[in-house]
Design goal:
single chain, 427 residues, 15 helices, two-stranded antiparallel ribbon
């Protein structure tokens, strides 16, 4: 069903962004021993400094975390972190939308300002995915979580009445996008393997130049250390095993810990702050329960339809696409569904290096979830952080070749929520 969409009551712009390193909090010297509140506060204070505002200037903050009970032993995590960035007593709201939480965080902040209720809003996301709380111990004392611990929570994204209880859910439909793409455009399995490996190599090139990224080494260097002169031979070796029919280990999220934050205000106020304001032209949203076939493709298409209708932006206007890609095929899907790359052509662009940060059609210039890292609720705002800094020309060694003026953020998480937001530099 087509829904008639209304415009925002007033224009909203991003005036500040912050992001911690995406790392393993138990071992990384920059983050070792920090708590959830300290990480969230780090990102929030950085966003305030970036904007040139203080805690007293912020009207309300939104707190996003995917699994506060599992990872933090909190039920009301928004209030538990307030003291770490000067927000004691401030109005706040917690929300959780699986791996789409950080993208919804932007939407909530924008709506709070667009409605006219608030003027300066902070929205952040935090996740510590690799460790959990030790019962009865202070928050900085944590125990390492196993892969089984994390995956044990996956069924909770499925409906309990007719899906999970009957064990009928599509619990790991990881190959749907790759398989459909091969069938639709006539690629062989070998060609798709080359495409996905090339995509992973390109992402690592970006993350190796990004001081906040989890992975700081290119695959070509890893390959040499393992005795391979040819990086593609390494990518097809036992060092990078196939985990499903199409996807190798390099095509899955790199789970880690981190936080990110954004500050928004009315666009007419934005020019009075420190940084170049970035307007949020609009955000399209969709949601499908996890057992629905082809939910990522269907939901992404609907969210993109909405945001194009809301904003009047055309595919040719896009300069950069950021897509939550905890499965690496998501970047290809989002780029083609948005029209950023013509359908059926994206695989060629990837093989030719054109989707790299230094290509003419960059996708996930920070390295995406497979290389920058995936801190669940924080990931969407880390992508927003990246997009804003790219648009300001502040990304240093991994700055894209053409300064982006219009960027699409495609969020996806947990078989629940999908978003498509469009950012544009305020002239």
């Amino acid at each position: 069903m087509s829904i008639k969409l209304g415009k925002q009551s007033r224009s909203v712009s991003i005036i500040g962004v912050g992001c911690t390193p995406f790392a393993d909090i138990l071992t990384n010297p920059k983050t070792k021993g920090l708590t959830e509140g300290e990480l969230f506060g780090w990102a929030a204070l950085e966003a305030m400094k970036d904007a040139g505002v203080e805690a007293k200037d912020v009207d309300i903050y939104f707190h996003g975390q995917t699994g506060p009970q599992m990872f933090s032993d909190y039920i009301t995590p928004n209030m538990q972190v307030a003291d770490w960035f000067g927000m004691r007593g401030k109005a706040s709201v917690h929300h959780s939308e699986a791996c789409c939480t950080g993208y919804i965080a932007l939407d909530l902040a924008v709506n709070a300002v667009a409605s006219g209720k608030h003027n300066i809003v902070l929205s952040g996301g935090i996740e510590i995915t690799g460790s959990g709380p030790e019962p009865g111990k202070p928050a900085h004392i944590r125990r390492e979580l196993s892969f089984e611990d994390i995956m044990g929570g996956l069924p909770r994204i499925y409906d309990r009445a007719y899906t999970r209880s009957l064990e009928a859910g599509l619990t790991n439909a990881l190959d749907v996008v790759a398989g459909d793409y091969c069938r639709q455009y006539g690629l062989t399995d070998e060609q798709m393997d080359d495409v996905l490996n090339a995509f992973a190599i390109n992402h690592r090139r970006s993350s190796a130049l990004n001081p906040l990224a989890l992975h700081q080494k290119e695959y070509k260097d890893t390959a040499k250390e393992a005795g391979f002169d040819d990086v593609m031979a390494y990518m097809k070796s036992a060092y990078n095993p196939k985990m499903s029919e199409y996807l190798r280990a390099s095509g899955f999220e790199a789970r880690c810990d981190g936080a990110a934050a954004v500050i928004v205000c009315p666009t007419e106020m934005a020019k009075h702050f420190k940084q170049q304001p970035i307007e949020v032209l609009g955000i399209g949203t969709a949601a499908l329960e996890g057992s629905q076939p082809h939910l990522e493709k269907r939901g992404t298409a609907e969210a993109i339809r909405q945001v194009y209708e809301l904003t009047g932006v055309k595919p040719a206007d896009l300069d950069l696409v950021m897509a939550n890609d905890f499965v690496i095929t998501s970047g290809l899907l989002a780029a083609e569904l948005s029209g950023y790359i013509s359908p059926g052509e994206g695989w060629k662009y990837i093989l030719d290096g054109r989707t790299s940060f230094d290509g003419d059609k960059p996708i996930n210039s920070n390295g995406g979830r497979t290389a920058f890292g995936h801190a669940f609720a924080a990931s969407g705002l880390a992508d927003c952080f990246e997009a804003v800094r790219q648009m300001r020309g502040q990304c240093g060694a991994h700055q894209v070749k053409k300064l982006p003026e219009t960027v699409m953020l495609r969020g996806f998480g947990g078989g629940q929520n999908l978003t498509a937001g469009i950012l544009r530099t305020v002239q």
